[in-house]
Amino acid sequence: MRKGMALMARRRKKEEVDLIESLLMMLLLATFFLVLIATKSIKISLISDGVVFVIILGILYYRRMLQEEKLMKSGIADIDKMDGREFEHYLGHLFKGHGYSVQVTQAAGDFGADLVISKDGKKIVVQAKRYSKNVGLKAVQEAHSSMSYYGASEAWVVSNSDYTTAAYSLAKSNNVRLITRNELIEMILIMNPTAPIEPAKEISNIVPELVIQKQTFADPIIEDVNCGKCGANMIRRSGPRGVFLGCGNFPKCRNTITLSS
After folding, report:
1. In Å, how far from its chain's centre is CA 246?
2. Is 24 exposed, middle or buried (0-12, 13-18, 19+ CB in 10 A)?
3. Which of 2, 100, 103, 258 shows the greatest Cβ crowding within 10 Å of its Cβ?
């Protein structure tokens, strides 16, 4: 079902691109012949076509920039409405905001990795799963198998949802990192504190012994520093504005302490 919906979405986008290309060609031809009829000059007609072409390119570029800006400002509710390919590109922006260099792989024949990210000499393959229900073990298998092809040292799966018990079990044995919806929200808010948020969701379908120790983008908890608002331990974090201490109850509590560089 999801594959069929994804194929339909890709087909619609291809049809939109084909329509834009057809309209562009018609406009250029119409401009050429109208100017030719008015001026009787092929040179002036070609120059006019060039001007129209540059204007159209500028409009398309501006439109694309607006779309990219909107994508970067997306919150978790926006992600829930994305198709799979949009989610991959969104994660590309998100990881760049966290200091990673990013390669979004081709839509087909990606060998199990939707993104390849690198930081501090470490290469990581990422499977992106924009799901409405829990992600199964196939995503873990694909992520793990893609490591050798891309020469990566780690494999991650990122989802706007949660994972099945089988997926957690396989990820633990294969050392694949699973990033859940709540951790994704945390990553979004570190990069974009104004993004719309929702209450954190409890993970209730996981057998306790199969739960992998949570890994986050934050550094270890600072045991001797407590939040002045709620009393929770502060956590060393890094974001676009540098290194700071953030409350461990984030996003419920947004108290921060700026660290000197």
Report:
1. 23
2. middle
3. 100
pLDDT in tens, 170-208: 999 999 999 998 888 888 888 777 666 654 444 444 333
Task: Extract the tokens encoding 256.
Answer: 């921060």
Q: Which two tokens stand for residue 12?
A: 């619609």
Sheet containing 177-179: order of strands: 101-104, 115-119, 122-129, 154-159, 177-179
Identify the pLDDT of residue 241.
56
- Strand segments, DSSP code E, in the chain are 101-104, 115-119, 122-129, 154-159, 177-179, 221-226, 233-239, 242-247, 256-258
Considering just the CA atoms, what is the radius of gyration of the chain in Å? 24
Write out pLDDT tens, residues 106-132.
766 567 799 999 999 999 999 999 988
Instruction: Using alpha carbons, list the distances in angstroms from residue 160 to 44, 71, 105, 132, 181.
Output: 54, 15, 20, 8, 4
Contact between 246 and 237 under an 8 Å Cβ cutoff? The reply is yes
110-135 burial: b if 16+ Cβ within 10 Å, else e: bebbbbbbeeeeebbbbbbbbbeebb
Alpha-carbon gap, residue 115 to 154, rounded angstroms? 12
Beta bridge partners of 69: none
Residue 158 forms beta bridges with which residues?
128, 179
Which residues are registered as beta bridge partners of 190? none
